[in-house]
Amino acid sequence: MANTSSTIQVRSSVKKGVATIKCLVSHPMETGLRKDKKGKIIPAKFIQKLSCEHAGVVVLDAELNGSISANPYIKFKFSGASKGDTIKINWADNKGDSDAVEVKIPTERRKRK
Amino acid sequence: MNLQRRLLLKSTLAASATTMAISAGLLTPKAVLAAWNTTAFTAKDVNAALAGAYGNSDLTDSNKIKLKAPEVAENGASVTITVNSELDKTEAISILVKNNAQPLTATFNFAANAEGFVTTNIKMGKSSDVIAVVKADGKLYSTKQQVKVTIGGCGG
After folding, report:
1. Cβ-defined contact of B36 to A90 (cutoff 8 Å)
2. Which tens digit of pLDDT belongs to each residue from B110-119?
3. What is the value of pTM for the model shown?
4. Which of B74, B100, B69 is nearest to B156 (CA)?
5. CATH tag for B37-149 (out of 3.50.30.40, 2.60.40.2470, 3.40.50.150, 3.30.565.10)
């Protein structure tokens, strides 16, 4: 992993100018509708915005609700990419937390034995 | 429960959250900070959610949208949904779950060079229609599929 401290993990590939990006974010995605054992509502904490920038242009701008699964996984594609390009992915949640990561595409895979 | 420990944890967490937000604020482009569409996401039914997100809820059924979802989902906490739009000028894809308390799950807005394709995992409270809505060339198209959620995990 390029950056293990980040909450965002990215896998990507580039084929004939089309980049496929898979990203996985570590996040609880608490809806605010669940209750704990004592019947107290667990406060909402979920990612509201996730975007991907390529060459200074936002290619994907996603608005998410609490009904996206915990540790959200998103896969998308865009064209006009070439190997060695940098993409920037970032998210922000309803509590004001956020994170961002920059990766070169295609991301290198860990070598398998 | 050790109350003081809880309090301490809480306050340190809050503090770190703020610093994180500030440092990330420097990194984050404005697009991310744009307002989240509260009206659409907290709407209680599909039509209201669409009206909030797109300003209208007139859907045209389209067979050019491929919605891939399991017929039976054993775990409603994570249901993999893939939407692939073959419509020209796909601008946005929304995923809605009819029987969820808040149907609108996500809206993906695409740039011109992005393909009308997205895969993600969603939560489903119970069996429901999953509706994929695609905005293409200013119009709304949709397709839907029923997904059965078996909470017991024993199929059926």
Report:
1. no
2. 999 999 999 9
3. 0.81
4. B74
5. 2.60.40.2470
